[in-house]
Amino acid sequence: MKPTEVGSLSEYISEINSLHTTMDTIHGDLWFRGMNSPDLELKPGIVWRGIDERLENTIIAEFNCNSYPLLEKEPKNSWQRYALMQHYGLPTRLLDWTKSPLVALYFCLLGDNSSDRVVWCIDPFELNKFTVDKETIFTPDTLSEDDGINISSYLPKSLRELQSTSVPALPIAIEPPFTNKRILAQQGCFTVHGTKSDGIEEIFSKNIPGKISLFKIKKELVEELSIQLHEVGIKEDSIYQDLNSLTSRIIREFCNV
Asked: How does residue 144 score in pLDDT terms, banded at 50, 70 and 90?
């Protein structure tokens, strides 16, 4: 796929607006994911680490056994618990996306300047239309089914009651329950992957090529675009919503000596 190169924040926003016009979409219809290397595939931690189902359930059991005294608030259901695991870096079959192109740009610019950066953009409605023939975004919470689809079957078996159901093969797009302020601030959403190891970019390129786009930022522009994002208020504490990010931002802005 040939990426669209952008050299400034205004150019990036213009390209996003053009994409919305071309695809006849509005904010929230398209999802974005920023990555700090053009070589990374759109695969979740469980997939790119090569973790099988048995080890996946062992990891989850270990988390469940040891996380209770550390939780500020107990998750209300299995999907909230699974999203919590992803939030704290545990390998899952969830892949993070955002409805905000600016948030995606922020994440792709993190780290040193040794590599070009990319922002992927997909139409999640088209993904679900292809994989499960439902042009909708699923919102798993307390219901086991959503629009006739057994959403619970996408959970690891150790997180659901009906363990006899097989995990589906292809991924779907879901909106998580907004149980913490960070996910809400980042306008977070997920693709949840099945048993097939194909990346999202591969699925789109082979089956729905007109519904995926790629933006590229040259490594020489990383610092400049980061400054431009900070100037419009996309900063550490607005993204992470905690005291660590607040102090990090204050040090960066006032103690750069």
From this structure: low
